[in-house]
Design brief:
It contains three helices and seven strands, in the order ααββαβββββ. The protein is an alpha+beta fold and 128 residues long. Strands 1, 2, 3, 4, 5, 6 and 7 form a seven-stranded mixed sheet that branches. Strand 4 and strand 5 form a beta hairpin. The two termini are 22 Å apart.
Length: 128
């Protein structure tokens, strides 16, 4: 799977709030670190459980992925998400730091993000 296909599948899984589709993008021994101060979610089961929990309060999810930056098997890609969280309009902007194995599955993910209330459009420089 090429990076753009992986990012598109990740975007779709998030918009559809589909933990099975999200988990399928990762290796069996993946590490998914959603909070830099916490412990990673481990393996596909960990990804599935995390996604089931975190997307439960989300609705009307619309995700945009920025142009990926590559360095060998490592990729950085911004995301810009507009959604409701517990019914309140919310914007979530962030960056995924990804490491892929030879089969194109992600074996390590770290993300950095910021929430704000309301529906905010990205700045002109976003995603390039």
């Amino acid at each position: 799977m090429v990076v753009e296909e992986w990012l598109e599948a990740y975007r779709r899984a998030w918009e559809e709030r589909d933990p099975e589709a999200a988990a399928a993008l990762f290796t069996e021994d993946a590490e998914y670190l959603d909070n830099i101060y916490g412990e990673p979610h481990r393996g596909r089961d960990g990804v599935r459980a995390y996604w089931s929990d975190v997307t439960a309060a989300q609705g009307d999810v619309s995700v945009r992925m920025g142009k990926p930056l590559r360095d060998g098997s490592r990729v950085a890609a911004e995301f810009w998400t507009q959604m409701t969280v517990d019914g309140a309009p919310t914007t979530l902007a962030g960056c995924l730091l990804l490491e892929f194995d030879d089969s194109g599955l992600c074996h390590r993910l770290r993300e950095y993000w910021s929430f704000t209330e309301g529906t905010i459009e990205p700045p002109p420089v976003w995603g390039n």
